[in-house]
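Example 3.2
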Amino acid sequence: MEKQELLEQLKALLSNDVNEVKDQVEELKNQFYRIYHQEQEAAKKKAEELGENMAEYKPAVDEIEQDFKQLFSIYKQRRAEANAAREAEQQQNLLRKQNILAQMKELAESETADVTANLQKMRDLQAEWKTIGPVPAPQVAALWKEYQHYGEQFYDLVKINFELREYDFKKNLQEKTALCEQAEALQDNPDIVVANRALQQLHEEWANIGPVSRELREDLWNRFKEASTVINKRHQEYFDKIHAKEEENLQKKQALIERAAEIQTEGLKTNKQWDEATAKIQAIQAEWRTIGFAPKKHNQAVYDDFRAVTDKFYQAKTAFYKGLRDEMNANLKKKKELLRQAEELKDSTEWKETTDKLIELQKQWKQIGAVPRKYSEEVWKQFSAACDHFFEEKKKAFHADHEAYIKRQEERRAQRSKDDELSGDRRKLVRMYEAIQLETKTMENNMGFFSGKAEGLLKSMQQKIEANKKKMDEIEAKIAQMDAAE
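Structure, written as C-alpha coordinates:
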Protein backbone atom coordinates (compact mmCIF):
# COMPACT_ATOMS: atom_id res chain seq x y z
CA MET A 1 0.00 0.00 0.00
CA GLU A 2 1.01 3.64 -0.43
CA LYS A 3 1.83 5.90 2.51
CA GLN A 4 -1.39 7.89 2.03
CA GLU A 5 -3.46 4.69 2.30
CA LEU A 6 -1.62 3.71 5.48
CA LEU A 7 -2.24 7.21 6.85
CA GLU A 8 -5.97 6.89 6.16
CA GLN A 9 -6.11 3.47 7.81
CA LEU A 10 -4.36 4.85 10.91
CA LYS A 11 -6.85 7.71 11.02
CA ALA A 12 -9.74 5.20 10.87
CA LEU A 13 -8.24 3.04 13.62
CA LEU A 14 -8.10 6.02 16.01
CA SER A 15 -11.90 5.90 16.26
CA ASN A 16 -11.61 2.52 18.05
CA ASP A 17 -10.46 1.53 21.53
CA VAL A 18 -6.67 2.05 21.40
CA ASN A 19 -5.98 -1.16 23.32
CA GLU A 20 -8.02 -3.22 20.82
CA VAL A 21 -6.12 -1.94 17.75
CA LYS A 22 -2.61 -2.08 19.19
CA ASP A 23 -1.35 -4.82 16.86
CA GLN A 24 -2.92 -3.21 13.77
CA VAL A 25 -1.40 0.20 14.59
CA GLU A 26 2.04 -1.31 15.11
CA GLU A 27 1.78 -3.15 11.78
CA LEU A 28 0.72 0.08 10.02
CA LYS A 29 3.66 1.89 11.62
CA ASN A 30 6.12 -0.78 10.47
CA GLN A 31 4.77 -0.74 6.91
CA PHE A 32 4.73 3.06 6.76
CA TYR A 33 8.29 3.59 7.93
CA ARG A 34 9.55 0.75 5.79
CA ILE A 35 8.23 2.64 2.74
CA TYR A 36 9.38 5.98 4.16
CA HIS A 37 12.97 4.83 4.76
CA GLN A 38 13.09 3.20 1.33
CA GLU A 39 12.05 6.51 -0.24
CA GLN A 40 14.61 8.43 1.85
CA GLU A 41 17.39 6.05 0.83
CA ALA A 42 16.34 6.32 -2.80
CA ALA A 43 16.35 10.15 -2.61
CA LYS A 44 19.78 10.16 -0.96
CA LYS A 45 21.16 7.78 -3.55
CA LYS A 46 19.79 9.94 -6.34
CA ALA A 47 21.41 13.02 -4.78
CA GLU A 48 24.75 11.21 -4.67
CA GLU A 49 24.37 10.21 -8.31
CA LEU A 50 23.65 13.83 -9.23
CA GLY A 51 26.88 14.90 -7.52
CA GLU A 52 25.32 16.87 -4.67
CA ASN A 53 27.45 17.78 -1.64
CA MET A 54 26.36 15.06 0.77
CA ALA A 55 27.85 16.93 3.74
CA GLU A 56 25.19 19.58 3.22
CA TYR A 57 22.49 17.19 2.08
CA LYS A 58 19.18 17.39 3.94
CA PRO A 59 16.25 15.16 3.09
CA ALA A 60 13.08 16.91 1.94
CA VAL A 61 10.27 17.23 4.47
CA ASP A 62 7.67 14.51 3.89
CA GLU A 63 4.27 16.04 4.74
CA ILE A 64 2.57 12.64 4.81
CA GLU A 65 5.20 11.42 7.30
CA GLN A 66 4.57 14.49 9.43
CA ASP A 67 0.82 13.78 9.43
CA PHE A 68 1.45 10.12 10.22
CA LYS A 69 3.79 11.05 13.08
CA GLN A 70 1.18 13.45 14.48
CA LEU A 71 -1.58 10.80 14.35
CA PHE A 72 0.74 8.23 15.90
CA SER A 73 1.52 10.68 18.70
CA ILE A 74 -2.21 11.08 19.33
CA TYR A 75 -2.52 7.28 19.42
CA LYS A 76 0.36 6.98 21.91
CA GLN A 77 -1.13 9.71 24.07
CA ARG A 78 -4.55 8.02 24.10
CA ARG A 79 -2.99 4.66 24.84
CA ALA A 80 -0.90 6.15 27.61
CA GLU A 81 -4.01 7.71 29.11
CA ALA A 82 -5.91 4.41 28.86
CA ASN A 83 -2.99 2.51 30.36
CA ALA A 84 -2.64 5.08 33.11
CA ALA A 85 -6.31 4.74 33.98
CA ARG A 86 -6.07 0.95 33.97
CA GLU A 87 -2.89 0.98 36.02
CA ALA A 88 -4.43 3.37 38.54
CA GLU A 89 -7.39 1.04 38.94
CA GLN A 90 -5.11 -1.98 39.24
CA GLN A 91 -2.99 -0.17 41.85
CA GLN A 92 -6.13 0.57 43.85
CA ASN A 93 -7.13 -3.10 43.61
CA LEU A 94 -3.62 -4.07 44.68
CA LEU A 95 -3.89 -1.90 47.79
CA ARG A 96 -7.23 -3.46 48.67
CA LYS A 97 -5.91 -7.00 48.27
CA GLN A 98 -2.77 -6.18 50.23
CA ASN A 99 -5.00 -4.86 53.00
CA ILE A 100 -6.98 -8.10 52.97
CA LEU A 101 -3.77 -10.14 53.05
CA ALA A 102 -2.59 -8.15 56.09
CA GLN A 103 -5.83 -8.99 57.87
CA MET A 104 -5.61 -12.64 56.81
CA LYS A 105 -2.04 -12.79 58.12
CA GLU A 106 -3.17 -11.34 61.41
CA LEU A 107 -5.89 -13.98 61.67
CA ALA A 108 -3.54 -16.79 60.64
CA GLU A 109 -0.94 -15.80 63.25
CA SER A 110 -3.41 -15.04 66.07
CA GLU A 111 -3.31 -18.24 68.12
CA THR A 112 -5.29 -16.99 71.10
CA ALA A 113 -8.21 -15.40 69.26
CA ASP A 114 -11.80 -16.62 69.30
CA VAL A 115 -11.80 -19.38 66.69
CA THR A 116 -15.44 -19.01 65.70
CA ALA A 117 -15.19 -15.24 65.30
CA ASN A 118 -11.92 -15.50 63.35
CA LEU A 119 -13.37 -18.14 61.03
CA GLN A 120 -16.25 -15.83 60.06
CA LYS A 121 -13.81 -12.95 59.60
CA MET A 122 -11.67 -15.11 57.32
CA ARG A 123 -14.69 -16.07 55.21
CA ASP A 124 -15.74 -12.43 54.97
CA LEU A 125 -12.24 -11.45 53.84
CA GLN A 126 -12.27 -14.23 51.21
CA ALA A 127 -15.70 -13.07 49.95
CA GLU A 128 -14.44 -9.50 49.66
CA TRP A 129 -11.32 -10.73 47.82
CA LYS A 130 -13.54 -12.26 45.08
CA THR A 131 -15.20 -8.89 44.41
CA ILE A 132 -11.91 -7.09 43.69
CA GLY A 133 -10.88 -6.64 40.05
CA PRO A 134 -7.49 -7.29 38.40
CA VAL A 135 -4.16 -6.09 39.79
CA PRO A 136 -0.84 -5.36 37.99
CA ALA A 137 0.33 -8.55 36.28
CA PRO A 138 3.72 -8.75 38.07
CA GLN A 139 1.88 -8.89 41.41
CA VAL A 140 -0.69 -11.56 40.56
CA ALA A 141 1.39 -14.66 41.34
CA ALA A 142 2.75 -13.29 44.60
CA LEU A 143 -0.69 -12.20 45.77
CA TRP A 144 -2.25 -15.59 45.04
CA LYS A 145 0.66 -17.30 46.78
CA GLU A 146 0.18 -15.20 49.91
CA TYR A 147 -3.58 -15.65 49.73
CA GLN A 148 -3.26 -19.43 49.58
CA HIS A 149 -0.53 -19.44 52.22
CA TYR A 150 -2.48 -17.43 54.79
CA GLY A 151 -5.63 -19.34 54.07
CA GLU A 152 -3.91 -22.68 54.59
CA GLN A 153 -1.94 -21.33 57.56
CA PHE A 154 -5.16 -20.13 59.12
CA TYR A 155 -6.63 -23.65 59.00
CA ASP A 156 -3.36 -25.40 59.81
CA LEU A 157 -1.95 -23.23 62.57
CA VAL A 158 -4.85 -21.55 64.28
CA LYS A 159 -5.93 -23.61 67.23
CA ILE A 160 -9.45 -24.55 66.32
CA ASN A 161 -11.22 -27.64 67.41
CA PHE A 162 -10.74 -30.73 65.34
CA GLU A 163 -14.42 -31.13 64.41
CA LEU A 164 -14.66 -27.63 62.98
CA ARG A 165 -11.40 -28.08 61.10
CA GLU A 166 -12.51 -31.42 59.67
CA TYR A 167 -15.90 -29.96 58.75
CA ASP A 168 -14.26 -27.17 56.74
CA PHE A 169 -11.90 -29.63 55.05
CA LYS A 170 -14.82 -31.89 54.20
CA LYS A 171 -16.90 -29.03 52.83
CA ASN A 172 -13.98 -27.80 50.71
CA LEU A 173 -13.36 -31.36 49.51
CA GLN A 174 -16.99 -31.69 48.40
CA GLU A 175 -16.85 -28.36 46.55
CA LYS A 176 -13.54 -29.10 44.82
CA THR A 177 -14.63 -32.65 43.96
CA ALA A 178 -17.76 -31.14 42.36
CA LEU A 179 -15.50 -28.80 40.36
CA CYS A 180 -13.47 -31.81 39.17
CA GLU A 181 -16.65 -33.54 38.04
CA GLN A 182 -17.84 -30.42 36.23
CA ALA A 183 -14.45 -30.04 34.51
CA GLU A 184 -14.55 -33.70 33.42
CA ALA A 185 -18.13 -33.28 32.13
CA LEU A 186 -16.99 -30.35 29.99
CA GLN A 187 -14.97 -32.81 27.89
CA ASP A 188 -18.24 -33.97 26.31
CA ASN A 189 -19.42 -30.45 25.45
CA PRO A 190 -19.44 -30.13 21.61
CA ASP A 191 -18.94 -26.35 21.83
CA ILE A 192 -15.31 -26.10 22.89
CA VAL A 193 -15.41 -22.30 23.15
CA VAL A 194 -18.24 -22.49 25.67
CA ALA A 195 -16.46 -25.35 27.43
CA ASN A 196 -13.22 -23.38 27.72
CA ARG A 197 -15.02 -20.33 29.06
CA ALA A 198 -16.78 -22.50 31.64
CA LEU A 199 -13.42 -24.05 32.59
CA GLN A 200 -11.95 -20.64 33.34
CA GLN A 201 -14.88 -19.97 35.65
CA LEU A 202 -14.25 -23.29 37.41
CA HIS A 203 -10.59 -22.34 37.94
CA GLU A 204 -11.64 -19.07 39.49
CA GLU A 205 -14.00 -20.89 41.83
CA TRP A 206 -11.27 -23.42 42.70
CA ALA A 207 -8.88 -20.63 43.72
CA ASN A 208 -11.52 -19.13 46.01
CA ILE A 209 -12.30 -22.38 47.87
CA GLY A 210 -10.32 -23.12 51.02
CA PRO A 211 -7.90 -26.04 51.44
CA VAL A 212 -8.61 -29.73 51.94
CA SER A 213 -6.69 -32.13 54.15
CA ARG A 214 -3.01 -32.38 53.32
CA GLU A 215 -3.11 -36.04 52.20
CA LEU A 216 -5.78 -35.27 49.55
CA ARG A 217 -4.56 -31.94 48.20
CA GLU A 218 -2.13 -33.17 45.54
CA ASP A 219 -4.33 -35.94 44.15
CA LEU A 220 -7.38 -33.68 44.00
CA TRP A 221 -5.42 -30.92 42.24
CA ASN A 222 -3.96 -33.42 39.72
CA ARG A 223 -7.46 -34.67 38.90
CA PHE A 224 -8.68 -31.14 38.26
CA LYS A 225 -5.54 -30.29 36.24
CA GLU A 226 -5.85 -33.39 34.02
CA ALA A 227 -9.46 -32.55 33.16
CA SER A 228 -8.37 -28.99 32.38
CA THR A 229 -5.57 -30.24 30.11
CA VAL A 230 -8.06 -32.14 27.94
CA ILE A 231 -10.21 -29.04 27.48
CA ASN A 232 -7.19 -26.82 26.81
CA LYS A 233 -5.87 -29.23 24.16
CA ARG A 234 -9.24 -29.37 22.39
CA HIS A 235 -9.45 -25.58 22.58
CA GLN A 236 -6.03 -25.22 20.94
CA GLU A 237 -6.94 -27.75 18.22
CA TYR A 238 -10.17 -25.86 17.58
CA PHE A 239 -8.34 -22.61 16.94
CA ASP A 240 -5.73 -24.38 14.84
CA LYS A 241 -8.58 -25.57 12.61
CA ILE A 242 -10.02 -22.05 12.50
CA HIS A 243 -6.67 -20.64 11.42
CA ALA A 244 -6.34 -23.31 8.72
CA LYS A 245 -9.86 -22.51 7.50
CA GLU A 246 -9.03 -18.81 7.46
CA GLU A 247 -5.99 -19.52 5.25
CA GLU A 248 -8.23 -21.55 2.93
CA ASN A 249 -10.74 -18.68 2.87
CA LEU A 250 -7.92 -16.26 1.97
CA GLN A 251 -6.96 -18.39 -1.03
CA LYS A 252 -10.61 -18.62 -2.15
CA LYS A 253 -11.05 -14.85 -1.86
CA GLN A 254 -7.86 -14.16 -3.79
CA ALA A 255 -9.12 -16.51 -6.53
CA LEU A 256 -12.41 -14.58 -6.69
CA ILE A 257 -10.48 -11.30 -7.00
CA GLU A 258 -8.60 -12.77 -9.97
CA ARG A 259 -11.86 -13.96 -11.57
CA ALA A 260 -13.46 -10.55 -11.12
CA ALA A 261 -10.38 -8.82 -12.56
CA GLU A 262 -10.57 -11.03 -15.68
CA ILE A 263 -13.99 -9.62 -16.60
CA GLN A 264 -13.09 -7.02 -19.20
CA THR A 265 -15.34 -4.00 -19.81
CA GLU A 266 -13.65 -2.41 -22.82
CA GLY A 267 -15.45 -4.56 -25.38
CA LEU A 268 -18.94 -4.34 -23.86
CA LYS A 269 -21.16 -2.34 -26.22
CA THR A 270 -24.73 -3.61 -25.69
CA ASN A 271 -27.18 -3.96 -22.81
CA LYS A 272 -27.08 -7.73 -23.20
CA GLN A 273 -23.29 -7.82 -22.93
CA TRP A 274 -23.37 -5.62 -19.83
CA ASP A 275 -26.15 -7.72 -18.28
CA GLU A 276 -24.13 -10.88 -18.84
CA ALA A 277 -20.99 -9.31 -17.34
CA THR A 278 -22.98 -7.93 -14.40
CA ALA A 279 -24.45 -11.37 -13.75
CA LYS A 280 -20.91 -12.76 -13.55
CA ILE A 281 -19.82 -10.05 -11.10
CA GLN A 282 -22.94 -10.58 -8.98
CA ALA A 283 -22.32 -14.34 -8.93
CA ILE A 284 -18.76 -13.71 -7.73
CA GLN A 285 -20.05 -11.30 -5.06
CA ALA A 286 -22.62 -13.87 -3.93
CA GLU A 287 -19.90 -16.52 -3.70
CA TRP A 288 -17.71 -14.08 -1.74
CA ARG A 289 -20.45 -13.70 0.86
CA THR A 290 -20.49 -17.47 1.43
CA ILE A 291 -16.80 -17.49 2.40
CA GLY A 292 -15.84 -16.87 6.00
CA PHE A 293 -13.13 -14.62 7.41
CA ALA A 294 -9.55 -14.64 6.21
CA PRO A 295 -6.70 -14.36 8.76
CA LYS A 296 -7.02 -11.15 10.75
CA LYS A 297 -3.83 -9.65 9.36
CA HIS A 298 -5.08 -10.13 5.76
CA ASN A 299 -8.85 -9.86 6.12
CA GLN A 300 -9.21 -6.09 5.59
CA ALA A 301 -6.60 -5.95 2.83
CA VAL A 302 -8.17 -8.75 0.78
CA TYR A 303 -11.60 -7.13 1.20
CA ASP A 304 -10.22 -3.79 0.01
CA ASP A 305 -8.70 -5.49 -3.06
CA PHE A 306 -12.01 -7.17 -3.89
CA ARG A 307 -13.93 -3.93 -3.36
CA ALA A 308 -11.52 -2.08 -5.67
CA VAL A 309 -12.00 -4.61 -8.50
CA THR A 310 -15.81 -4.60 -8.26
CA ASP A 311 -15.93 -0.80 -7.90
CA LYS A 312 -13.88 -0.48 -11.08
CA PHE A 313 -16.40 -2.65 -12.94
CA TYR A 314 -19.43 -0.71 -11.73
CA GLN A 315 -17.75 2.62 -12.47
CA ALA A 316 -17.21 1.47 -16.05
CA LYS A 317 -20.83 0.32 -16.23
CA THR A 318 -22.06 3.69 -14.96
CA ALA A 319 -19.92 5.49 -17.54
CA PHE A 320 -21.31 3.27 -20.33
CA TYR A 321 -24.94 3.92 -19.44
CA LYS A 322 -24.29 7.63 -19.09
CA GLY A 323 -22.93 7.64 -22.65
CA LEU A 324 -25.90 5.55 -23.76
CA ARG A 325 -28.32 8.07 -22.25
CA ASP A 326 -26.57 10.89 -24.10
CA GLU A 327 -26.85 8.95 -27.36
CA MET A 328 -30.54 8.20 -26.74
CA ASN A 329 -31.23 11.87 -26.07
CA ALA A 330 -29.52 12.74 -29.37
CA ASN A 331 -31.69 10.12 -31.12
CA LEU A 332 -34.77 11.66 -29.55
CA LYS A 333 -33.83 15.02 -30.97
CA LYS A 334 -33.44 13.48 -34.45
CA LYS A 335 -36.82 11.72 -34.26
CA LYS A 336 -38.53 14.89 -33.12
CA GLU A 337 -37.16 16.60 -36.22
CA LEU A 338 -38.59 13.80 -38.42
CA LEU A 339 -41.89 14.15 -36.56
CA ARG A 340 -41.92 17.88 -37.31
CA GLN A 341 -41.42 17.19 -41.05
CA ALA A 342 -44.10 14.47 -41.06
CA GLU A 343 -46.65 16.80 -39.44
CA GLU A 344 -45.87 19.46 -42.06
CA LEU A 345 -46.56 16.91 -44.83
CA LYS A 346 -49.62 15.17 -43.40
CA ASP A 347 -52.17 17.55 -45.02
CA SER A 348 -50.49 17.63 -48.44
CA THR A 349 -52.53 16.55 -51.52
CA GLU A 350 -49.44 15.95 -53.64
CA TRP A 351 -50.06 12.25 -53.27
CA LYS A 352 -47.16 10.76 -55.20
CA GLU A 353 -44.50 13.25 -54.12
CA THR A 354 -45.59 13.31 -50.47
CA THR A 355 -45.84 9.51 -50.36
CA ASP A 356 -42.20 9.29 -51.43
CA LYS A 357 -41.15 11.86 -48.84
CA LEU A 358 -43.00 10.13 -46.02
CA ILE A 359 -41.56 6.76 -46.97
CA GLU A 360 -38.10 8.33 -46.87
CA LEU A 361 -38.83 9.81 -43.45
CA GLN A 362 -39.98 6.39 -42.27
CA LYS A 363 -36.75 4.88 -43.58
CA GLN A 364 -34.68 7.48 -41.70
CA TRP A 365 -36.75 6.85 -38.56
CA LYS A 366 -35.92 3.16 -38.76
CA GLN A 367 -32.19 3.89 -39.02
CA ILE A 368 -32.16 6.03 -35.87
CA GLY A 369 -31.34 4.14 -32.70
CA ALA A 370 -33.32 3.88 -29.47
CA VAL A 371 -34.61 6.87 -27.48
CA PRO A 372 -35.35 7.13 -23.72
CA ARG A 373 -38.11 4.69 -22.86
CA LYS A 374 -40.41 7.29 -21.31
CA TYR A 375 -40.54 9.17 -24.66
CA SER A 376 -40.35 6.21 -27.07
CA GLU A 377 -44.05 5.32 -27.35
CA GLU A 378 -45.25 8.92 -27.31
CA VAL A 379 -43.01 10.19 -30.12
CA TRP A 380 -43.72 7.07 -32.20
CA LYS A 381 -47.48 7.48 -31.83
CA GLN A 382 -47.24 11.11 -32.96
CA PHE A 383 -45.07 10.24 -35.96
CA SER A 384 -47.23 7.27 -36.90
CA ALA A 385 -50.41 9.36 -36.53
CA ALA A 386 -49.02 12.01 -38.92
CA CYS A 387 -48.16 9.34 -41.52
CA ASP A 388 -51.48 7.51 -41.04
CA HIS A 389 -53.40 10.78 -41.46
CA PHE A 390 -51.81 11.42 -44.86
CA PHE A 391 -52.36 7.87 -46.14
CA GLU A 392 -55.95 7.88 -44.90
CA GLU A 393 -56.64 11.10 -46.79
CA LYS A 394 -54.92 9.68 -49.85
CA LYS A 395 -57.11 6.59 -49.66
CA LYS A 396 -60.24 8.76 -49.43
CA ALA A 397 -59.16 10.77 -52.47
CA PHE A 398 -58.58 7.68 -54.60
CA HIS A 399 -61.88 6.25 -53.40
CA ALA A 400 -63.70 9.42 -54.49
CA ASP A 401 -62.10 9.18 -57.99
CA HIS A 402 -63.23 5.60 -58.25
CA GLU A 403 -66.77 6.46 -57.17
CA ALA A 404 -66.90 9.12 -59.88
CA TYR A 405 -65.74 6.60 -62.45
CA ILE A 406 -68.37 4.09 -61.34
CA LYS A 407 -71.02 6.79 -61.51
CA ARG A 408 -70.04 7.64 -65.10
CA GLN A 409 -70.22 3.98 -66.01
CA GLU A 410 -73.68 3.64 -64.49
CA GLU A 411 -74.91 6.71 -66.37
CA ARG A 412 -73.65 5.26 -69.64
CA ARG A 413 -75.32 1.95 -68.91
CA ALA A 414 -78.56 3.75 -68.08
CA GLN A 415 -78.62 5.16 -71.58
CA ARG A 416 -78.64 1.66 -73.00
CA SER A 417 -81.59 -0.81 -72.74
CA LYS A 418 -82.24 -3.78 -70.21
CA ASP A 419 -81.71 -5.92 -73.31
CA ASP A 420 -78.23 -4.51 -74.15
CA GLU A 421 -76.51 -6.03 -71.18
CA LEU A 422 -72.77 -6.20 -70.82
CA SER A 423 -71.13 -8.97 -72.67
CA GLY A 424 -69.53 -11.78 -70.68
CA ASP A 425 -66.03 -10.46 -71.43
CA ARG A 426 -66.91 -6.97 -70.28
CA ARG A 427 -68.41 -8.33 -67.03
CA LYS A 428 -65.23 -10.29 -66.40
CA LEU A 429 -63.16 -7.18 -66.92
CA VAL A 430 -65.33 -5.15 -64.56
CA ARG A 431 -65.12 -7.84 -61.88
CA MET A 432 -61.34 -8.05 -62.35
CA TYR A 433 -61.09 -4.26 -62.10
CA GLU A 434 -63.15 -4.18 -58.90
CA ALA A 435 -61.12 -7.03 -57.32
CA ILE A 436 -57.81 -5.30 -58.11
CA GLN A 437 -59.21 -2.00 -56.88
CA LEU A 438 -60.28 -3.59 -53.56
CA GLU A 439 -56.87 -5.21 -53.12
CA THR A 440 -55.19 -1.86 -53.82
CA LYS A 441 -57.31 -0.05 -51.26
CA THR A 442 -56.48 -2.71 -48.66
CA MET A 443 -52.75 -2.40 -49.29
CA GLU A 444 -52.87 1.40 -49.14
CA ASN A 445 -54.70 1.17 -45.86
CA ASN A 446 -52.15 -1.33 -44.53
CA MET A 447 -49.29 0.93 -45.56
CA GLY A 448 -50.52 3.48 -43.09
CA PHE A 449 -50.68 0.78 -40.44
CA PHE A 450 -47.13 -0.49 -41.10
CA SER A 451 -45.55 2.95 -41.59
CA GLY A 452 -42.08 3.09 -40.14
CA LYS A 453 -42.20 -0.46 -38.80
CA ALA A 454 -41.02 -2.68 -41.68
CA GLU A 455 -39.07 -1.03 -44.46
CA GLY A 456 -38.93 -4.13 -46.68
CA LEU A 457 -42.66 -4.75 -46.38
CA LEU A 458 -43.49 -1.12 -47.23
CA LYS A 459 -41.33 -1.22 -50.34
CA SER A 460 -42.90 -4.48 -51.51
CA MET A 461 -46.44 -3.17 -50.93
CA GLN A 462 -45.68 0.07 -52.80
CA GLN A 463 -44.41 -1.89 -55.81
CA LYS A 464 -47.55 -4.06 -55.77
CA ILE A 465 -49.81 -0.98 -55.59
CA GLU A 466 -48.07 0.61 -58.57
CA ALA A 467 -48.42 -2.64 -60.53
CA ASN A 468 -52.16 -2.86 -59.63
CA LYS A 469 -52.78 0.72 -60.72
CA LYS A 470 -51.09 0.05 -64.03
CA LYS A 471 -53.23 -3.05 -64.54
CA MET A 472 -56.39 -1.08 -63.58
CA ASP A 473 -55.53 1.52 -66.22
CA GLU A 474 -55.16 -1.25 -68.81
CA ILE A 475 -58.52 -2.82 -67.84
CA GLU A 476 -60.23 0.56 -67.86
CA ALA A 477 -58.88 1.21 -71.36
CA LYS A 478 -60.16 -2.17 -72.60
CA ILE A 479 -63.63 -1.49 -71.15
CA ALA A 480 -63.64 1.92 -72.77
CA GLN A 481 -62.74 0.33 -76.15
CA MET A 482 -65.58 -2.19 -75.78
CA ASP A 483 -68.05 0.58 -74.93
CA ALA A 484 -66.89 2.67 -77.92
CA ALA A 485 -67.32 -0.26 -80.25
CA GLU A 486 -70.93 -0.67 -79.19
